[in-house]
Automatic annotation (TrEMBL):
Protein keywords: Membrane, Transmembrane, Transmembrane helix
Taxonomic source organism: Flavivirga aquimarina
Name of the protein in question: Uncharacterized protein
Spans traversing the lipid bilayer: 30-47, 53-72, 93-113, 125-145
Length: 163
């Protein structure tokens, strides 16, 4: 029973991430998205040593994700100590928010940090697009969807608000 609810919750979470992600490609958010891609591409284009920029960006992303992951873990532990109740959606958010996105960093690192990498305008643009899209997915899965999921749980289980 718990396994089925976990699967359903994970499916719901992924659908919410995808639907929020698609919203960034509608007006007015697409303007911000395209501007972000253009700005990062311009920065990458004018830098001589692009590797340090990529290392800095990925380090910031990892720090941001770890910070929110640890913060959520502490909040879950405190709530469990106070109430002696575990909430399935909090554990699902903890799993989906952290692990999935960290796995992709290893793949990116190998592509971005090759010492013999030749940077041309196409590769700069592709890297800029990938980084901005990755940042969007991370932001959505860390900030937007957990709040939507929390509101859904509050509607269904009013005792969650009392905890």
């Amino acid at each position: 029973m718990v396994e089925q609810k976990t699967k359903a919750l994970n499916k719901y979470y992924r659908k919410q991430v995808w639907s929020c992600f698609k919203e960034f490609f509608k007006l007015p958010k697409i303007v911000i998205t395209l501007f972000s891609i253009w700005a990062l591409n311009t920065i990458v284009h004018f830098l001589n040593d692009k590797t340090y920029l990529m290392i800095s960006i990925i380090t910031i992303i990892i720090f941001f994700q770890f910070y929110h992951l640890i913060r959520l873990k502490i909040r879950i532990k405190r709530r469990f100590k106070r109430t002696d109740k575990k909430w399935l959606f909090e554990n699902s958010i903890l799993q989906l928010r952290g692990i999935i996105h960290f796995l992709n960093i290893g793949v990116w690192g190998q592509v971005l940090f090759k010492p013999d990498r030749v940077w041309n305008s196409t590769s700069e643009l592709m890297v800029s697009i990938c980084i901005i899209l990755y940042l969007l997915i991370s932001y959505i899965s860390i900030k937007i969807v957990p709040e939507k999921l929390k509101m859904k749980v509050l509607k269904e289980y009013s005792e969650y608000n009392l905890l």
